[in-house]
Every structure is written in structure tokens, then in C-alpha cells.
Amino acid sequence: MKQLKIALIGNPNVGKTSVFNALTGLNQHVGNYPGVTVERKTGTFHLTNDTKANIVDLPGVYSINPNSKDEEIALNAIFDTQNNDFPDVVVLVAEVENLKRNLFLFSQVKDLGFPVILALNMADQMDKKGIFVDVPALENALHTKIVLLSARKNHGIDALKQAILNFNQPQNTPFFDLKTVNENHFSTIEKVFPTKNLYKIWLTQTGVYPFEAINTTDFKANNLDLSTSEIKKLQQRETIKRYQFINDILKQTYTVNTSKATDLRMRFDRILTHKIWGYVIFLLVLLLIYGSIFELAAYPMDFVDGLFADLSTWASATFPEGKLTDLIANGLIPGLGGVLMFVPQIAILFFLISILEETGYMSRVVFLMDRIMKPFGLSGKSVVPLVSGTACAIPAIMSARTIENPKERLITMLVTPFTTCSARIPVYIIIISLIVPKTYLLGFIPLQAFVMTMMYVLGFLMALFAGWVLSKIIKAQRKSFFVIEMPTYKLPILKNVLLNMYDKVISYIVGAGKIILALSIILWFLGSHGPTETFGNATQIVTGKHINDNLSDEDLQSEISGYQLEHSYIGIIGKSIEPVFKPLGYDWKISIAVLTSFAAREVFVGNLATLYNLGEDAADDEAKIINRMANEKHANGTAVYTLATGVSLLLFYAFAMQCLSTVAITKKETNSWKWTFIQMAFMTTVAYFAALIAYQLLK
Amino acid sequence: MTTLNFLKKSQKGKIIAINTDNVPLKLIEMGCLPGNIVEVLQIAPLLDPIYIKVNDSYLSIRKDLAKEIEVELI
Known about the structure:
The complex is a heterodimer. Chain A is α/β, with parallel strands linked by helices.
């Protein structure tokens, strides 16, 4: 079988991914370039029965001068002949509407010496927009094969395949004559390096990529050295000249009847970026997203949760009693459940986000919100992660991928877990019910609900504050600029939306899943093992102690579980670190509950229930737990849960990391243990001191 | 002669010069070039960023960048 390598390149928002999806369907993979978290999308398809094509979808670029580290790495695919993705043929996807700018990129790729096929996407829109392209004349002028297609309607895909199959070898004559930029400089280069590609030497000199080893003495001897600002001036001149060259070609081959062009964009923009309506609509969109991930996802989440709980019960009942069964039933299955439980939220969130991006609305949100977020080191695009963080930080951190500026993206990912996620709700409800009286503020606002709302506000403010602090500390890797394109409004293509959603879910399951699973198993081990003389003999010890108490089997079992947790390794660790938590007002039981809920906050309530010998089932019975906690006394007879302890716990859970899944996803998305650790340390420190100060002031 | 950040909504200007040292090549490649016409389509509610049309590209840029672009009102 013959193999052909193809690179798909083009400006952002020209429908490049649609072309990729139309060509490859489900035969595609998303991975990272080795060692870096730059997405690498590849796929395969058949050109004929015996010719297979491997295609790589490079991220959207406006030119081959990379503007970010990510683009640099991705463009290496067409720069570096040793790169696995180095193509035999380049397909440049362009949009008929902004042909001028698309041809700018085309001219650069062509000058690198590639055989290029120009795929003019959205050709079905030409009539409507009053665009006419003289295809044969343009093919002639550009020395290339042009394919008209509409990926949206699946038109022209076969023609594109045919063109790829019949691609011509590159012509060695350069397309654009660099000597028009500076006769002297480029003629000299040509004389000094007669056998080499002039454009590649120029790109080597500008620092884009070391295409040709330049002997610096050859350069100096011929007065070819240029200062940085001279290079930049020449680049600017090159850009002007290229555009002039393209304009001349388009004058002959391309006409737009502007009277036919619709003003759809302006009509939508007038409302969507309006100083009042813009924010109102955005708020409604947020409510929709928020409602969907909160309400809609609750059903499949409960289903998955229930399914794995049943599976766990079934496993422990069916398999022979022993360590292995225990591991499967209480370590592996709940761990797996913990991973899969978040899939519905991730799927729904990314379904909605990709619709917003495909339609072009997201750029308008960025435009609306940028000024508000800027002082906090964030960008307009940080709004989405911060808002979706109120459901769950995992999909939220993943959604920060849309932020191009590396510093703003990093800060967004680091501060997102401060927003109040749904896992904090059970903890808040229990504590608030304990310490906040059921009275009304100003006579009509329920005080408990008010405190709950304030916890959300607190989380959001903390995220902004942390962003402000981090923006002062983190050094920008490169000077970044805010230049975003405001794309045309489009109807989303369901196939693209679903494929994007599928990518994100798989990447979560594979990436974060293994870490979550591994750590759940470790926590299971620490929680279900302990020194033999106490833990191992728990049943005898507890039974012996209650021999005359006439306890029901169920109560006795709860007492045993509580005793076991107390004497398990994690219980021992909890007791030994009690001094650390004492200044915050926590006794050893709370310390253990806090410690075990490091993996996931929602475990806090269940573990407290176990420690108070209520049995795990009581975790669902809030009234019972609240009642038991209200009566909990210190050895000296004072109540454990006072206002001071309560506020201290609320603040601790508001700020502390306490979520393994988030740690895992931060590691995956930042690709750095350093930032993962800094995030964890930062949050834990803030949580500890906030709780400490609150307790010491209130006690 | 003024700079792009001072243009009001729906005003047009012809680009006269660009401070090459402070403007990314990306903006120039999008067509923000001397001689081209730039139009301010919209200014964000909090007065920054601005939404412009230049060389058939629709872009949003922050004002700190717009002030590096010299224009002549037309």
C-alpha cells in the first residue's frame, strides 16, 4: 500500500477542521507533540484502494511567521524535514470571502517549495455574497491546482482527493520575487548561496526557523548582517510587497459585488456587543451553560454514580471474600466511577462551548469581557473557565485551551479551582445548617441561603484576587499582544461539535483518569489497612466493648467501621497531624475527615458519618448527621461545632485544593508538575491561614 | 494626523505609519499596513478593546496596540 503524507494548513476560521473531519471522519487521533501540550490532530483516509493518506491538521495560522510557541511547534511539521508530519503535499484551505489574506499564507508556503493545493472552502456561498472567481486564470497565476469545495455540505471532497492524488512536483522558480523587497540584499544572498532556496535563507535570517546553515562569515564578508529592527522593517516591506503582488493577481481573477454582500455581521454585532444587551445576552448564555452542566448533567451523573455503587455491592457479594475482592469492590470500581462520573458534565460543557465557538459568538464575549478581566491578569476568554468552574473545575480547566496567550491561560487554569464547584455544596449545606440560624436577613432574605450565595461570591473574588497576585509574579515568556479575529457568524456543524466533544471526553478519561484511579487505590489501601493489633482485631475489640449493650447488628457494624477508620493508616496519619489542624479548631475526627477528603471534597460528609459511627448510609440523611454533629462535645464538655469552627471549615473548603481530579487535570493541561504543585501549595496556604485567622478571631 | 485609538465608532482612517517595534508582525500580516483603510466598527462597552475592519479582516485589538498605529482621518 502506498502512503502519502498531507498537511492541512490555513487561517483560523476558514473551516479547516471541517475539511479535516470530512476527509477523515472517525479515523482521527488527537495527541500532543512529544514533550509539549500542543495539540496534534492526525487522521487517515483512503485516496484509492491502494493509496492511504496520513493527514495532519495544523493549528490555524495567518502566516508562517509563528506568533506563539504553540504555532512554532506546530509549524515545525512543515519546516523540519525530519518531522514525522513533514508532508509530501500541502493542502491550503482558504475561504472565498477573504481570499487576499489567505493567499498571503499561500504565497509563503509556495515559496518554501511545497506542492500546494488550494482548497477554496465555502464555495457554495459565492453567489449569495456576490463573489466571482476565475478559477482557471487564478490557477495559472498561482501555478497551482484549485479545488472549490464546501465542507459544510460535503461538496468537492472527492475532487480534493483527486487533486491530492494527481499533485504535481514543485516548481523551483519562486512564486514571489523577494528582490522587489530589497534588490541589493536579496541579490547578494542569491549570489553568495546560488544553490539554496532564497526564501529559506531569509527565514533563517529572520529567526523563523534554521532552514539553511548560514555561515556567519559568509554573511559578514558580504555585508548581509542586519540588525533586529532592520529585519523587522524588511519583514514589513515584504508583507506590503506580497500584498501588492496578490492584489495584482486578484484584480484579474476575483470580483466582489459588494452590494450583494449581506450585513448579517453588523446586525448581529449591533446586538451581541451592545453595551447593555450584549451583557444581558451573555448572562442568559451563561445561565444556559450553567443550568445544563448543573441540572442536565445531574441525571447521567447520578446514574453513573449509582451504577458503580451497585457494581461495587455486586462485586463484594459475588466474588469470594478477600483482599482482591476488596480492592476491586472498594478501590477499583469506586475509582473508575469517580473518573466516569464527570464525563456527562465534560461532554455537555464542550458541546455547548464548541457551538459558541463555531457560531463565532465566543469572540464577541471576549470582546465584551476583556477590559473587565485584564486587571486580574486574565483575558476575556477566561470568563468561560471561571463560570463553568462553578459546576466542576475539570472541564473548566480544559476549556482554558481557547486562550492563546500562554500567561493568561496559565493564570486562568491556576485560579479556576477557587470558584465554588458542585462538590463543595454538600459540605457547605451541612456546616451552614449547623452554624447559621434559620432567621431572615432584613426580614425577608433567608440567612442560610444568603451565606451560601456569599460562598459563591467569595470563591469568585478569590479567583480574581489570586489572578491579580499571580499576574504580578509570573513572568511573561514573550511579549503578548491582543489581536483576535472576529469571525463571520456561521451555523455550527453538528459533526464538528460532536467530534470536538468526543476528543475532550477521551482526553479527560485517558489523561486525568489514570492519576485519579491510581490515587483512589492508594487512599483505599490507607483507609482499609492498619496495624493488626488494633485494626485487624476491630471486630473483637468493638464487640467485646459492647458485649452488654444489646446493640443491633447494624449499629454494631457502624461502631466497627468507625473504629476501623480511626485505627487505619489514614486514621493514624489523621491523629498524628491533629496538632496541625488544632489551631483551626478541628479535633482528630475532623482532621481525618479533612485529610481523607483530599481526594474529593464530597467525601468529607460521608467520612464524618463513618467516624461518628452513623454508618455510611447516613451520609444521605443530612438531618441525622447534623443532629449528631450538633451534639458532638470535646473532652471538656464544650461543643465541637461552634460558629468559629464552622466558619473555619467553610473557609478551608472554599479555598483548599481538596480534589485529586483537579490536580490531575492541572498536571495534564499545564504539562508541568511545578505549576501543579504551586497551585496546590498556594490554595492550601490560603485555605489554612484564612481558616486559622477566622477561628482565632471568632473563638 | 492622529492614532487609531482616538477614532470614534464608524470613523475611517488611512494608515500612515506603524510603530514597527511595538506592533506584532501578526497585525501587519493581517493587512494593517500603511496605505490601507481602517474602520472602527465598534468600541467595547468599557471603551477597550476596539473592533476594526482593515484589509477585509475583522479584528479586535486593545487600545494600547491601536495607539501605535498612526492614521489620517478620512
